[in-house]
Structure formats: structure tokens, C-alpha cells
Amino acid sequence: MATPMKESLKLISGHACEACPLALTQAGIHTEDVDHVVALAGNPNTGKSTIFNALTGLRQHTGNWPGKTVTRAEGAFQFGGKTYKVVDLPGTYSLLSTSADEEVARDFILFGRPDCTIVVVDATALERNLNLVLQVLEITDRVVVALNLVDEAARKGIQVDHRRLARELGVPVVPTVAKSGQGMGNLLQAVEGVISGAIRTRPHHLQGDRAFQQAVDRLAQELTQLYPGLPSARWVAMRLLDGDPRIQEAVRTGELARIAHGDTPALGTVPRYPLTLEEVSP
Amino acid sequence: MSGPTTTSIRPEEILRDAENLRRSLGPSFRDAVVEAIYADAERIARRTVRRAGERYDGFDQWLDRVLTSPITGLPIMGLGLALVFWVTIVGANYPSELIATVLFWVEAQASALFDMLGVPGWITGFLWHGVYRGLAWVVAVMLPPMAIFFPIFTLLEDLGFLPRFAFNMDRLFKKVGAHGKQALSMSMGFGCNAAGVVATRIIDSPRERLIAILTNNFVPCNGRFPTLIMLALVFFAAEFPPAYASFVAAGAVVAVVVVGIVTTLVVSALLSRTVLKGEASVFTLELPPYRRPNVMQVLYTSFIDRTIFVLRRAVLMAAPAGGVIWLLSNLHLGGQSLALWIADFLDPLGNAIGLDGVILLAYIIAIPANEIVVPTILMTYTNAGQMIEISGLDELRALLVGQQGWTLLTAANLMLFSLLHNPCSTTIWTIWSETRSKKWTAMGALMPLGIAFLVTFVVAQGVRLLGS
């Protein structure tokens, strides 16, 4: 009984995986009949499109250039016997403003109900990148952080303690170098684990002052009363408190109900070996 | 949990509650959220990031100081751009001649073979002197400059050069009342104006976004660069002594780019003071680190995404255009070909702006793709007048200067017209799909056309006034 756990632990955390065959089949643009949908979010110019290309084998134009992707690009790959659709979202610094590119990213994470969202962060500028991660964590608990550009960070003498980061954020953090494909195996293992429930996440929630906390808690409670199982209740609450018309609309029309009754795994399907985060992150 | 929902709360109540809480929290709630995010991000980063040494190494920092300095930044970038064009012009000259020689030799042989086999003259003419010649011109004049220019351009893009250019432009855009991010969408326009128009989505204010959309066309795209380079190659390079001809040609292309940027700024300023009034909004622009480009990726992007893409589009457009021109040149009405009738009709207008009727006719035929303007002009000239064998760029110069009476003014105004005139049909369609407004789409198409006529008219009249 202990073997499968060790197995998956090794795959997620071990460096051995870089040597073993990746079992990744790039499936290009064939995005029909997929088992899971994975979204790629992140600040501009952190290598999202490069990861997208590495996974799908497509040639989405990449460039050292913030704002390269302003629309969604979709592709597919197979991993561990499952087919995944991956959606490359526009690079954004936050999900709070109303520019068209941020709306595309926000709407997809919220209403597109991806089974997992990979937030790609730039290891050389972690603090600024965390702003977006913290916002995504308020929307969904199915998140894997790809700590990209670790090679560049190392060159600049910057070291990120990714185990500690995983504990702080409450979701898996996988160091990657997208350009050379390094860490892609670990990343996919983590995604698979989060989707299957083998990895249980405990997403970090914003703290803020007392008045902020009370208002958010109260509204979030009301929202979960109305829509049981809504994963993004706190974030919806924050947007309502900010008077976001798009979210008000979603509450009024019941669009949020769809998310609430979405494919969150029911209790019975959670695998028998839930891993704690400390074990999962290498 | 799965039973019938017995919630006592309704959406309206939540919204009302939210409104009340919002009022009690005051307008500072947005700030409170942002503060909470920043505070947590800062705390987590402090716990997880360790820095050894400085974060930005000496050379990068020095480079950024020089490249983004208000004094040295833009001049250095202008010189860099000039160098790129110079390399392209010098490098493209010989291959262009070679390809032209080979392709036109094929045309001569093939049409001779057709004649020998007794194929009717009009079929030979249509196929070989029409469709094939159109294709040959496109390949000969466009492929070599593209094969040199695009890899260099892509390399600069991957290195992180363009955001620094945008950074330098940001100050200027703010001054004219536009959004600083327009510098980014404008830079995207150098690749493709349709892509540049889509890139304006990064601008959140609709007013500033419209300004960026309407003016994107004023920077030459990948399709128009070969036209500009080719004109510089054929014309400016021949007009000046060989010792510095190539420098003059590179300088001419840079000058056209500068005119495009100045036009972008002037038109943006006019728009933001008239139909699209408002304040410029503030934003932060991030300078990405200099990254070592992935050579394979650069080659792939520049060759497949750019060279082949542009060439394919040009070829697809040039083949029917070649056929149309051949028909227009060979269908006669009252002893004169249709092409000549139209060209004669357009001549007065063309003359007024320093061009001629044939050039305007070419622009009309080339509306779907700006790439094929010059090949179309060449085909019209060679078909309409005396049939001459053109085997290289020298003969081309002889044709344009000797027979058609082109002057420096013609070439300069053709470059200006190519820079400023209406966007290609793809871009116009993109403006429509981004704005969903007939008014702004029409404006996006007609305003540049009007400006192109105005500028070339002023230049032509000015030069004639001074010259006579």
C-alpha cells in the first residue's frame, strides 16, 4: 500500500524524473475530447508561452516582450494516460483592473473552471510576481506555481527557497527552466496530483486589517450559503466590495452557481494517500 | 449537501449587503485590498528569497542606463536601426539580382517553349508574362531583404531591445496625451499592424486604446519593410556614388521610420485634443532582463513565422494581381490598353502628389496586401510599355529612371505613401473586430489615406517650388 505513495513522491519531488522518460506526448492543436483543462497564468514575460510550447509542441510566438500574448492560445498534450487541454492566458500583473487582457485571464480562471491553474512566476522578481499568485489563490485552490527562470536567478545570485514558498502559499511550487524544458516533468506531476486530489492544497488567504477581514468573511459566508462549494467565495466577496459590475452581474444571474456546482471532486473520490505539501515539494 | 437547497438568502440580499458594507468601508477598500496583497507578497518574499551580491549585474545596468537615457537612448536606437537596414541593403543587393536573373530566364525559356508548341499567345501571355512574372517579382525583390532583416529583427526582439525602445517612447506618448503603453502596441506594429491593433488590448482606457488603434498603421509592418528596403536598394543606392550609396539607402529607410513615429505622435496629439479628449493615465512599464536568445527559436520565428508567412501572403496576392495586370494591359479599348486608360485617368492625381497613374493603380490592386505594391508597379510598367527583358536591378533602374522618368522625389514620395496610406484589408478587418464600430473602422482606413495624400502633396509641391 505504501508503494504508490513513494512512487508518486519520487516523481513529484525527485530529480530522478529528469532522467526518466517524460511520458509527455505533445498533441498540438487537437483540443477536443480532453480529460482536463489546465490554464497558464502569470505576469508578462515570465515564460508562459515558452512553457505552453514545451507542453504542446506548438510554436506560439515567444519574445522577450511584455504583452506578447493578449488573447487565449489553446493546445493539448497527453501525460500519464490523460489528455490535457492547456490554455495560455494573457500575461497580467493583477486581476483587479479592467483592461481587456486582464479580463480574459480573470474570466477564464473564474468562469472557465480550469481543473488546475499553473501560475508561472519569475524567480528573479518573486515579490512582484506574488501579487498575482495571491489573487489567483483567492479564486481557486487548484493551483501549481511554476517557479520559472531559476537559472537566470542563480546567475544573479538570487535563491528562492521553494519548499518554504510552497508552505507559505499552500500549493506546490516547482522550479523550472522553460527554455530548456527543465522541471516540466515535475510540473506535470504536480498538476496531475492537484487535479486528482493526491495533493491537497491549503491556499494562502490575504490577511488585511480587521475591517477588511470582517467584511470579506461576512460576504463570503453569505455567498457560500447561496452557492455551496463556491471555491472563490472570498475573491467574489472582495470584488463585490470593490463594486465590480461584472461580478455583481454574475451573482445576479446565478452564473456563479455553475462554478459552485462545478467538478470539484466529491469527498468520496479523494485518493487514499493525500500528501501533505511539505512532502510534495522537492 | 446534495439535498434540495434550502438557502434563505437570495442574490439580491447579498448584493444589497455588499453595497452597505462597501459604503461603510469607504472608497479606500480598493487600496486596502492592494495593500493586503502587497503586504503578504512582501512578507512571503522576505521569508523565501535570498540574495547574494547585487541583483542586476554591472554590464546590464550600464547598458540600460545608456539605452534608456533621455539623451543617448533614442539616438543610439536610431543608429542601431540604421545599421540593421544597412546590413540588409548591402546583403540583399547581389542575391536579388541573382534570383531575378534566374527567374526571368525561366520565364523566357518557358514562354519560348509554349510558342514552339503552338500554344495560343494569350495563354502564354497570361500565364508566363502575367501570373508567373508577378510571382517572380515578389520572390526576387522581397525574399533576400526579408531573409536578412527578419532574423536580425527577431534577435533584437528576443534580446529585450523593443521594450527599451518602448520605454524611451513612453515619455513622448505621455506628452501627447496618449497612453504610454501605446509605445508597446506601436512596436508590435513593426511586426504586423493587425497584431499591433490587437496588442492595444493592454491599454485599459477606451479613449487611449482608440488612439493607439487609429495610429498603429503609421509604423511600417513586415509587409512594408521589404517595399521600403527594396526602393532604397533600387533607387537611392543607384543615385549616389557607390562609396556611400548604401549608407544613403539605409538612412532613407530610417528617415521613413522616423517620419512614421513622428506622424504617430502628431496624430495621437491631434486626436487626444479633438475627438478623443482626455487625460493620459499612469502605468508602470517593466524592463525585462536582457536574455540570451534561443538561436533555433529566432531562426524558426524569423524564417517560418515571418519570411515564409509574408512571402506566402505576397505570392498568393501577386499571382492573381499578375493576371489582372496582364489582362488590363492586354485588353484594348479604342487602341489603348485598359491599364493605360486607368493610369491616364489617375495620372493628374498621381502627378499632384509626385507619383503617377500607374503607381496609384498598383496601390488599388494591392489593397489586400501592401507587400505587392512594387512588383505590381513593375509588372504594369513592363507590360504596358515596350516589352523589355529585365534580368537584374540595374535594368530595373534603367526602366524606372530612364523610361518612366522617376526622380528622387518619386521614390521618396512612394516610400512616404507606402508608410502613411490606408492599412491592408486584414488590419482594417481587425480594427472592425476590435472596435465593433463602423465609424472608427472607417476612420482607421480613411484618415491614414487622407494623411498620405496630404503629406505627399505637400512634399511634391514643395520640392517643385524649390526646384524650379
Q: In which range does the helix fraction of chain B lie?
A: over 70%
Q: Would you state the CATH class of the largest domain in chain A?
A: Alpha Beta
Largest sheet of chain A: 7 strands, mixed
Number of helices of chain A: 13
> Spatial order of the strands in the main sheet of chain B?
2-3
Q: Would you report the number of β strands of chain A?
A: 8
Radius of gyration of chain A: 18 Å
User: What are the secondary-structure elements of chain A, in order, as H or E?
Assistant: HHEEHEEHEHEHEHEHHHHHH
Whole-number radius of gyration of chain B?
Answer: 27 Å
Largest interface: A-B, 70 and 73 residues
* Termini Cα gap of chain A: 22 Å
What does this entry look like structurally?
- The complex is a heterodimer of chains A (about 280) and B (about 475).
- By secondary structure, chain A is α/β, with parallel strands linked by helices.
- Chain A is about 45% helix and about 15% strand.
- Chain A has two domains: about 200 residues, P-loop containing nucleotide triphosphate hydrolases (Rossmann fold); about 50 residues, no CATH class.
- Chain A has a seven-stranded mixed beta sheet with strand order 1-3-4-2-5-6-8, with helices on both faces.
- In chain A, strand 3 and strand 4 form a beta hairpin.
- By secondary structure, chain B is mainly α.
- Chain B has one domain.
- Helices cover about 75% and strands about 0% of the residues of chain B.
- Chain B contains 19 helices and three strands.
- Chain B has a two-stranded antiparallel ribbon.
- In chain B, a hairpin with a 2-residue loop joins strand 2 and strand 3.
- The mean pLDDT of chain B is about 80.
- The chains are: A alpha/beta (about 280), B mainly alpha (about 475).
- At the A-B interface, helix 4, helix 5, strand 7, helix 7 and helix 9 of A face helix 1, helix 2, strand 1, helix 5 and helix 7 of B.
- Strand 7 of chain A pairs antiparallel with strand 1 of chain B, so a sheet runs across the interface.
